[in-house]
Amino acid sequence: MQPLKIYLDGQFVDEPDAKVSVFDHGLLYGDGVFEGIRFYNGRVFLLEEHLDRLYDSAKAILLTIPMERDELRAATLKTCRENGLRDGYIRLVVTRGKGDLGLNPNKCSKPTVFIIAATIELYPEKYYTEGLRVNTVPTQRVSPAALSPAIKSLNYLNNILAKIEGNLYGAQESIMLNAQGFVAECTADNLFLVKKNKVLTPHVSDGALGGITRRLMFELAREAGREILEANVTRYDLFVADELFCTGTGAEVVPITDVDGRKIGKGTVGPVTQEFIKNFRTRTQSGGTPIY
Ligand SMILES: Cc1ncc(COP(=O)(O)O)c(C=O)c1O
Question: Which atom of ligand 1 is the closest one to the Cα of 190?
Answer without folding.
Answer: 4
